[in-house]
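Work package 3, deliverable 3.1, input record:
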Amino acid sequence: MGQFGELTLGGISFGMIYAAIGLALVLIWRATRILNYAQGGMAMLTTYIALTVISHTGSYWAGFAVALAAGLVLGAVIERVVIRPVENKPPLNAVIVTIGLLIFLEGLAGIIYGGQFRSFPAAFSITGLRHGSLGISSNDVFVAGAVLAAALVLAVVFRYTSAGLRLRASAFNAQVARLLGVRVGRMLTLGWALAGLIGALAGVLVSPSTFLFPDSMDSIFVLGFTAAVIGGLDSPAGAVAGGLILGVVLNYVGGYLGADLVPLFGLAALTVVLMVRPSGLFAATRTRQV
Amino acid sequence: MTLLRHLAVAVIVGVVIVILSVRLNAFRDYQIAEVACYVVAVAGLTVLVGLSGQLSIGNGAFMAIGAYAAALMTIHLGWPPEAVLVASAAIAALGGAVVGVAAARLHGPYLAGATLMLAVALPSIATKYSGVFGGDQGLSVSLTVPGFLGPSFPLTRWQAWLTCAAALITLVLLANLARSRVGRGWRAVRDDEVAAERSGLNVARLRILAFVVSAACAGLGGALLAVTTSIVSPGAFTLTLSIALLTGAVLGGLGSLAGAVWGSLVLVFVPTYITDVAASHGLSSSTGSNIPVAAYGVVLIVVMLVFPDGIQGALRRLFKPMTPDAGILRGAPRRRASASEHQEEGST
Amino acid sequence: MSEPAAALAVEEIVAGYGGVLALQGVSISVRPATITAVLGANGAGKTTLLRTISGFVRPRGGRVMVDGRDLTGRRPEDMARGGVAHVPEGQGVIAELTVEENLRLGALWRRGRAVRADALAEAYQRFPVLAGARRRPAATLSGGERQMLVIGRALMSRPRVLLLDEPSLGLAPRIVTQVMRLTARLRDDAGLTVLLVEQNARSALGIADKGIVLNLGQVVAAADAAELAADVGLRKHYLGF
């Protein structure tokens, strides 16, 4: 298997992580028109919680499960306590609140766990986790598979269940949904809980590669945001596609051009996408009702 | 008339500062200088965010541009500090123009995301081209007291005077700008961009101008910081700085110049206070250094939730007729279509 | 003049937006299985009235009673579960969902899969055109079909009272007639109680039992529909025909 093939497969693995974060962002964006800058911070915290569980019980899967559960709870609590009051205010308020939340979470993690880099175990064999290796590792397969499974489960939930119908209705037209008896507030909490869940998944999947420290999810968040933007903030499928493309391309850059160019390339990618994206994307939400 | 009033206030404040700087010790003078540096940068940001409605979490990058420009000019060109300061502000303003043009059509999360990328990516340029920029160690900048003040004039006092003079000039200029047609245009764009466009305002130009102004202020603040701390390094201009600026602006009261002052005071005095308290309680240094970070976050959240108008807003409510009026008018916040709230009074 | 048997009773409602009071003491009583038309010029407060009843606007004074129960100040989702179905101005079709999803949404809060399935079957029976389009995105429906959809959707919850806001807006006259006939049939066959807000006073009075005229937030006339239609002076002054 040539370097190209390995880079591609490794890129897919990372790409799925970006896709997961992107998916979480899209979920929240569609439901509340808020971009959750704290998404990475939430994922970081749940991963620390997982690490604590793992070191106490010795079981990876216990930590994995707890992380996902913590993600659900954290997302729900955050929406109810911190986000609900700013859902109807100018968008600026929500941005500042989520940024505040992000740095609070990072500070909190620093206080509780300290700033040193910690290693986080991978679910399966990690030989070959970094690029330039021979073949693809079982962990890579697990990562891609887990995110894919999560995305599919979400898609099924949204499309085929009553809760999913309520979630979609609340996101598309909250006022009409309320007129039909949908408890939109609860749906928003559920949306944030699901986003917290996916974020937590991304956190435990990527931390073996990046090590765990309070700021470790910052760059992942930025790339996840880029993935969501590439796909269009309103499209979950777009976030997944965007994540895959981004992951693969960035892996090529790292493999062929050098690792230190990856952040700059990410910046360039985001810039290009933001330039090219027609302002029509936002013009739609800004048309005035006369 | 407004200009005279602003100048009068500035002069009075200037005299007070001079007196304080003489009575206080060198460290306090240094802190006064620090506050002044932040006031300049925060004021620019509060104008950008509060008046023109554009959120930037990347103004730390403009501070970095100003700081490095100042350092390089001092080292390689040997210009006097006044010239260096103005030139640094101009260079940062140029950067602001570039970013402003690129971001002219971005709103909300897209804009914030783009500026976030800027804040994250720019410092790495200093490390990449370490030959010019001094890499991680950075560059050192020296400031000398001008001859006419006498040989025994303390450096810190001169730093305080220089920075505060720059801050006062900046505040006066911003106050006038805010009251001018440009300021009104900014507020119109902030409140309803579509309506502003329809009523003939050049929205793109106004938005770019706001970026230029805020970048110039940030650049000036960075340059001032360079001559105050005597060193510029990438570590001083991380994303944390950009967020700290935003915290200062929000805490003080978005759109308020007086708020920029309150916010800067908090930014300089509170973290060291907290760290000192933490150290005196025997907390480890990593805990101690993370408490201000967590505190920033809590402040941002609480202020936005509880008193979104910040300190200045609270003061204004408490002392209605007597508030220091920096001349900034704040428009009513726009309402979004309610997603979850039971509306008190409907929406049109 | 409130009767104990009123399906919907609104008493001395005061409501508004910001500093403006759109409703200044409005009282209306709607008997079961009747259509009451609410008429008046633009800005008279008609839509605000419906929005207050359905819970979007919290009244500053007065009461909203459904079947004798005081539901004043409840949130929209609770009003809906309390038996108030509001079809808003502009129809409120959720365009991104399919026809069937829109319909199902109306009954989601009701307990029991059989109950919900029956409601859906009944909707398709009543509106065969919707049955034919069940899997299509609601965005692809014509104006008249959309109106059917939102009425059908509102009926899915087996409401005590149906609030119809300007159903004729944007529809061709032929379709308007269809919609009006449909509404009348619902009253006659299914005993539905309707509060109908309409600019098109003529067609509204054609099917209504009672008529209420609002002007500047106050009731200026309340009488049997036939009487109102016959009162030429009133018609000309407030209703434009």
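The mean pLDDT of chain C is 89.
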